[in-house]
TrEMBL record:
<feature type="domain" description="Peptidase M1 membrane alanine aminopeptidase">
    <location>
        <begin position="227"/>
        <end position="440"/>
    </location>
</feature>
<dbReference type="InterPro" id="IPR012779">
    <property type="entry name" value="Peptidase_M1_pepN"/>
</dbReference>
<dbReference type="InterPro" id="IPR027268">
    <property type="entry name" value="Peptidase_M4/M1_CTD_sf"/>
</dbReference>
<dbReference type="GO" id="GO:0016285">
    <property type="term" value="F:alanyl aminopeptidase activity"/>
</dbReference>
<dbReference type="GO" id="GO:0006508">
    <property type="term" value="P:proteolysis"/>
</dbReference>
<dbReference type="InterPro" id="IPR035414">
    <property type="entry name" value="Peptidase_M1_pepN_Ig-like"/>
</dbReference>
<feature type="domain" description="Peptidase M1 alanyl aminopeptidase C-terminal">
    <location>
        <begin position="539"/>
        <end position="852"/>
    </location>
</feature>
<protein>
    <recommendedName>
        <fullName>Aminopeptidase N</fullName>
        <ecNumber>3.4.11.2</ecNumber>
    </recommendedName>
</protein>
<dbReference type="InterPro" id="IPR042097">
    <property type="entry name" value="Aminopeptidase_N-like_N_sf"/>
</dbReference>
<keyword id="KW-0645">Protease</keyword>
<comment type="function">
    <text>Aminopeptidase N is involved in the degradation of intracellular peptides generated by protein breakdown during normal growth as well as in response to nutrient starvation.</text>
</comment>
<dbReference type="Pfam" id="PF17432">
    <property type="entry name" value="DUF3458_C"/>
</dbReference>
<dbReference type="GO" id="GO:0008237">
    <property type="term" value="F:metallopeptidase activity"/>
</dbReference>
<dbReference type="InterPro" id="IPR001930">
    <property type="entry name" value="Peptidase_M1"/>
</dbReference>
<keyword id="KW-0378">Hydrolase</keyword>
<comment type="similarity">
    <text>Belongs to the peptidase M1 family.</text>
</comment>
<keyword id="KW-0479">Metal-binding</keyword>
Length: 852
């Protein structure tokens, strides 16, 4: 990496120009695309002389100012800019340039996914399409004409409303789109292809009829119905909960197979990774259906939180992402089980964000600097960002929060704003001072809270001490300000007090009077603050039985299990009380999808976070041991639960059947620990009789790890059935790459040569290489083979798609927590990668931080 330039928030300057309108014409050809870009520009700062536009690898054909072609002496082309020298106060610039979408493997800007032309411009892709002031605080009205071969590309789409069709005599045609809402360039989109589609309509609360279309590869139309249902539910929900209505005549969604992320909220033309659109019972799991519902809603919600009110600069990313994730989480909670949703969200936060927040790449939800903005679409900006909004919601309560968000929309509609602007609206509308709360935006690391209890003479005292991590550069950080929900239970498990404490000081004590016996504490209910509770506690089994808050009941189970595993690691001794309490859970009469979560034992990632120095062998051994004890002790009960919920098999997506599949498959995964023929046969039968992908995939996974012969037959069957369905093949690759069988690496290497695999398709890379990188057992192999494999892959993929490569670098984040042996092996490989000629700034930034 030659010149890694760091950008800083403190260097932000208001734009010196405004672009009022943009007129774009795209002439799409097989070998090249000609872009004509005509902009009406005004100077905002009259001291400015030159106009410096963002432009990467520009192949300029022509540039004119106010209709006059410019001589070469009037402009300068550099690696990342086109500068027009000496421009007037108000003028029109017209630029014609050439690009090559069919060679674009980075999947940023205009590129081809299979036979479909599509775009991805967030955060800075637009500059590789045409020269522009490519920053989110430049908002402009776009009119776009797309011209292409009529037969190959019958569907031509862009943002806004369709205003004109151009027919011509040869084989080409064109369509013009106009988007009346001023928007930043990152929300620009274009699609051209021979696409199938389904259509529907939605009538908004003020009676506007909106046309809804979902486009996909021909033949996949019948897999779009769940996405369409989800879209309509999301539109209804945003009207009901936030009073926000859709604002164009048409809403288009396009599913493409090659996409770096989940989906993109381009104005009126969302472009989706097909994994978040396409689903039917034969090919998608229940989790896939839920994922689609939430991502469809997420992108729709961006129309107000992101598009109409956007970010002033990319340091403000959490303004739109944290808020929109919070919105989609609440939507999913309303559509499904709220208690399950909350636990799943917290689980995801801990598995990804907590790990990130403890690593050398940790950063505040509002970072101060970056080299590649692409590296900051992180669990911290998104998921921790959502937790921060959730705390604001908790402080304000439903009613004031509604008032405050209304104020936010009224005040900033049509503007590019900052997180401070958002907090201003929250404190004004919510009538609350949030000054002390701002630390959440500027500090990194997961805060801890040490909890100590005492009881004497009827008085219960709760002493809280904040343990605040230093910054990466060892700077001290300030105490946090947050809501801490708690409950106190009496000895019969009755709730005697429920309260939301406000934690604000480094150390404080809360006193509660008039108890006959020492109450039992249930703390951080609903996970009201994204912190780690540190507490020596012996009452987990009590809370497992009696806690009235579903989140802390789950939490007690997890904590007790972790404590038990920790004991198993150091002393080989099993805590009988835990086994007994677990037995109690098996008999609980609660919602079955919630119960499936309660019965899940802590993940490797959860156990690893408790270790000073990570030793995966030790973790796996202890985890296996506990699972085995549970499975042996409760074998009959587990089998009962299995049978009771396995029959009758159903393809229904009703909550009841989703829950039955969840509990049954949880139980099967526990029984797996017995490693018996009986369980193998159960899994084999489940595979063969499965009506749903949910059942099939769990059975396949169990077989792969349990019984070589059965697995071989099932895997072959699966491959033959689904080899033409790339979304299903992702699952196949993921199972094999996550396997515990000894020859995983060998098989992964072989699978790279499978004809279904394609290194240019991010989903496939993530499911094969990415899954292997998360297979701790073999990625961290003592001989270094896992590290070497991944380093080689990063080097190769970096040349194809830097964003995908830097994503894979993340597996090395745990480096400084590994034992010396592994640490040295990791560093050796990382040094090799970072000294590769021409390494992207994306990969450079991540590896540089890990090696520092
Ligand atoms: N803005 C998208 C979202 O969160 C994510 C995204 C970022 C997609 C960058 C592509 C590129 O909905
Ligand atoms: Zn988003």
């Amino acid at each position: 990496m030659s010149k890694a330039q760091t950008k800083y928030l403190k260097d932000y300057k208001k734009p010196a120009y405004a672009i009022k309108t943009v007129d774009l014409t795209f002439e799409l050809f097989e070998e090249e695309t000609i872009v004509t870009n005509s902009m009406q520009i005004t100077k905002a700062d009259t001291n400015e002389k030159d106009l410096k536009l963002d432009a990467v690898s520009l192949e300029l054909l022509e540039v004119s100012l106010n209709g006059l072609k410019l001589q070469e002496s009037r402009y300068i082309i550099e690696e990342e800019n086109l500068t027009i020298i000496n421009v007037p106060t108000e003028f029109e610039i017209k630029i014609k340039n050439k690009i090559y979408p069919q060679n674009n493997t980075e999947l940023e800007g205009l590129y081809k996914s299979g036979d479909i032309f599509c775009t991805q411009n967030e955060p800075e892709g637009f500059r590789s399409i045409t020269p522009y002031l490519d920053r989110p605080d430049i908002m402009s009205v776009f009119t776009t004409t797309v011209v292409a071969d009529k037969k190959k590309y019958p569907i031509l789409l862009s943002n806004g409303n369709k205003i004109k069709c151009h027919e011509s005599f040869d084989e080409r045609h064109g369509v013009t789109w106009h988007d009346p809402h001023p928007k930043p360039s990152y929300l620009f989109a274009l699609v051209a292809g021979d696409l199938g589609s389904i259509s529907d309509e939605f009538v908004t609360m003020s009676g506007n009829k909106i046309v809804l279309n979902i486009y996909c590869d021909l033949g996949n139309e019948n897999k779009c119905h769940h996405a369409m249902r989800s879209l309509k539910e999301a539109m209804k929900w945003d009207e009901k909960k936030y009073g926000r209505e859709y604002d164009l005549e048409i809403y288009n969604i396009v599913a493409v197979d090659s996409f770096n992320m989940g989906a993109m909220e381009n104005k009126g033309l969302n472009i989706f990774n097909s994994a978040y659109v396409l689903a039917d019972m034969d090919t998608a799991t229940d989790a896939n259906f839920m994922g689609i519902e939430s991502v469809i809603a997420h992108e729709y919600f961006h129309n107000w939180t992101g598009n109409r009110i956007t970010c002033r600069d990319w340091f403000q990313l959490t303004l739109k992402e944290g808020l929109t994730v919070f919105r989609d989480q609440c939507f999913s909670a309303d559509m499904n089980s709220a208690e399950v949703q909350r636990i799943e969200d917290v689980k995801a936060l801990r598995e990804r964000q907590f790990v990130e927040d403890a690593s050398p790449t940790r950063h505040p939800i509002q970072p101060e600097s970056y080299i590649s903005m692409n590296n900051f679409y992180t669990a911290t900006v998104y998921e921790k960002g959502a937790e921060v909004i959730r705390m604001v919601h908790t402080f304000l309560g439903e009613k004031k929060y509604a008032k405050a968000t209304d104020l936010y929309f009224e005040t900033f509609d049509g503007q590019a704003v900052t997180t401070d602007d958002f907090l201003w609206a929250m404190s004004k509308g919510g009538d609350i001072n949030l000054e002390a709360f701002k630390t959440w935006y500027h500090q990194s690391g997961t805060p801890r809270l040490k909890v100590e209890e005492s009881f004497a003479n009827g008085t219960y005292k709760l002493s809280l001490t904040q343990i605040i991590p230093d910054t990466l550069e060892d700077r001290k950080q300030k105490p946090y300000y947050y809501p801490l929900k708690m409950g106190l239970l009496d000895e019969e498990g009755k709730e005697v007090l429920v309260k939301t404490l406000i934690v604000s000081k480094e150390h404080e004590t809360f006193v509660f009077e008039n108890f006959e016996t020492k109450p039992v504490l249930s703390i951080n209910r609903d996970f009201s603050a994204p912190i780690i509770i540190e507490q020596k506690k012996s009452e987990y089994d009590f809370l497992m039985q009696y806690d009235t808050n579903s989140f802390t009941q789950y939490e007690a189970t997890q904590n007790f299990a972790l404590q038990t595993i920790n004991k198993l690691i150091s002393s080989d001794e099993i805590d009988k009380a835990f086994v007994q309490a677990y037995g109690y859970l098996l008999d609980l009469d609660v919602d079955l999808s919630y119960k499936a979560l309660l019965l899940e034992l802590p993940s490797v990632s959860a156990i690893m976070q408790l270790q000073e120095k990570i030793d995966f062998d030790v973790i796996y051994t202890a985890q296996d041991k506990l699972l085995k004890i549970i499975a042996q002790k409760f074998k009959n009960k587990l089998l009962d639960i299995y049978k009771k919920n396995h029959f009758p098999a159903s393809m229904s997506l009703d909550a009841e059947y989703i829950a039955k599949r969840a509990i049954k498959n949880r139980v099967l995964k526990i029984l797996f620990a017995l490693k018996s023929d009986e369980v193998a046969q159960l899994a084999q039968k489940q595979y063969e009789e499965s009506l749903t992908m949910t059942d099939r995939i769990v059975a396949l996974d169990v077989l792969e790890n349990l019984h070589v012969n059965y697995a071989e037959v099932a895997l072959q069957d699966f491959y033959n059935k689904y080899k033409d369905e790339t979304l299903v093949m992702n699952k196949y690759f993921a199972i094999l790459a996550s396997s515990s069988r000894y020859d995983v690496l060998e098989r992964v290497e072989k699978l790279q040569r499978d004809k279904v695999y394609d290194e240019k398709v991010p989903n496939l890379v993530r499911s094969l290489v990415g899954s292997f990188a998360r297979n701790h057992k073999y990625f961290h192999a003592k001989d270094g083979s896992g590290y070497k494999f991944l380093a080689d892959k990063i080097i190769a993929i970096d040349k194809i798609n830097p964003q995908m490569a830097s994503g894979l670098c993340g597996a090395f984040k745990v480096c400084n927590k590994m034992n010396n042996h592994n640490q040295n092996l990791m560093k050796k490989e990382l040094s090799r990668v970072i000294s590769t000629q021409g390494l992207s700034k994306n990969s450079f930034e991540i590896i540089d931080k890990i090696l520092k």
